[in-house]
Design brief:
Length: 213
């Protein structure tokens, strides 16, 4: 009995040890699997204790240095509109009026001879002078004094002319281009004009006067 009982107990003990080992392995396997699941859930942000990152705020638009708003582009200056009214036509001194000195110069009257486009702007080539003493027949000449000089004229100057530039004896309006075109084909006529300039010294009004050479 003793030897056979010992032999029987040996296999039983072995089976119990194997069963215990399998049970322990199953418990360890279940624990390991639960640990992995918890770790994966935490990594995915869905498990207990997971931290959800808040979306970042939208970055503000860049501004100029110091927070100042860039200045707007300056407005382009507007050119003055040309006057539609031609300057009035003054008359030379009436016969019998006192004669001017031969060296006198009228401050706002010129004899226009030619023009030049040099410098990017039209300029009239003129001679200054004064009204002389009436001659036989009542004509009053404009006596020029000194050398030729030039005066710039605006492209939109108010200009009034009559014969021989235009027909008739009353001043009618023309453009600066029309005046210079006539001067190009009729140089050195010495027609007399009264004029006004702006603060830059550019002619802005020009009116033809009566003149008999």
């Amino acid at each position: 009995m003793g030897a056979s009982g010992t032999a029987v107990q040996g296999p039983r003990r072995l089976r119990r040890q194997v069963a215990a080992a399998l049970a322990l392995c199953g418990a360890l396997t279940l624990t390991a699997c639960n640990g992995d699941d918890g770790g994966d859930a935490g990594a995915a942000g869905t498990g207990p204790g997971a931290i959800t990152a808040s979306p970042s705020a939208t970055a503000p638009a860049p501004t100029a240095p110091g927070g100042a708003t860039p200045p707007a582009s300056p407005a382009s200056p507007k050119k003055p509109s040309p006057s539609a009214t031609a300057p009035d036509k003054p008359k030379p001194p009436a016969p019998g009026a006192p004669c001017a000195s031969k060296d006198a110069v009228s401050p706002n009257e010129i004899a226009v001879h030619r023009y030049t486009p040099e410098g990017g702007q039209y300029s009239l080539i003129v001679k200054r002078g004064h009204w002389g003493c009436p001659v036989a027949g009542g004509a009053t000449p404009f006596v020029t004094v000194g050398e030729e000089t030039w005066i710039p004229i605006a492209e939109d100057a108010a200009i009034g002319v009559h014969a021989p530039i235009l027909s008739g004896s009353a001043n009618k309006p023309i453009t600066t281009h029309e005046l210079t075109s006539w001067l190009e084909t009729h140089p050195n006529k010495g027609l007399v004009f009264h004029y006004d300039v702006n603060k830059e010294g550019v002619i802005v009004t020009l009116g033809q006067e009566e003149y008999t050479s």
